Amino acid sequence: MNAVITGASKGIGKAIAEKLAREGFNVAICARNAGHLEKAATDIQAANASIKVLARSVDMGQKAAVLAFAEEIRNTFNTVDILVNNAGIFIPGGMGDQEDGLLESMMSVNVYSAYHLTRQLLPGMKAARKGHIFNMCSTASYTSYPNGGAYSITKFALLGFSRNLREELKPHNIKVTSLSPGPTLTASWEGFDAPPGRMMEPEDVADLLWGAYTLSKQAVVEEVIMRPMLGDIA
């Protein structure tokens, strides 16, 4: 069994990769920061010494880099059972105040990377008539909020991509799930002094993903919204 997780050097992506490694999956991971990626690969391998870990430094905002990563995945794994499109960047700010070009760069990482990587790996999934694609959306995919700016736009777009993909892949027996976590204790929230226990843990998202994956063949979770017990953080 083989899984691909983008943006997996820390946070939710790393938690998912470690979970799948413990469950016996070979994993291919990528991130921009080579140092963080190397440590993540070591930790993931430690979770299960018997699985293979493919770790590559990739700028997911660059189409050519995404395509090269996809080619290496195809050359390494004969099939991909799980694809987690998790790569993303979060920069808050109002649309009128954000710097010119920010929307385009965030769209490249948050949306286009998922589009290009999925397209490259779909032929193998279709041939095998199996696979599960998870797109890491957000509560910002559903709810507009002040200071959301370009980030919120990209997350709305990713949810639209995921919904369209779900309809398109029904005849091919390939599942598609949109996971939309709210405030989760990751690097995106660095500097925010949240009360202890107020935010979700990355492992919560990983456990939910595993639960969705392990349903019967005839069942699929289409969309999930996760929030802290006390709701969003203002």
From TrEMBL:
GO terms for molecular function: oxidoreductase activity. SUPFAM superfamilies: NAD(P)-binding Rossmann-fold domains (SSF51735). One of its GO terms (cellular component) is membrane. InterPro entries: NAD(P)-bd_dom_sf, Sc_DH/Rdtase_CS, SDR_fam. The keyword Transferase does not apply. Keywords: Oxidoreductase. Belongs to the short-chain dehydrogenases/reductases (SDR) family. PANTHER family: DEHYDROGENASE/REDUCTASE SDR FAMILY MEMBER 7B, DEHYDROGENASE_REDUCTASE SDR FAMILY MEMBER 7B. This is Short-subunit dehydrogenase.
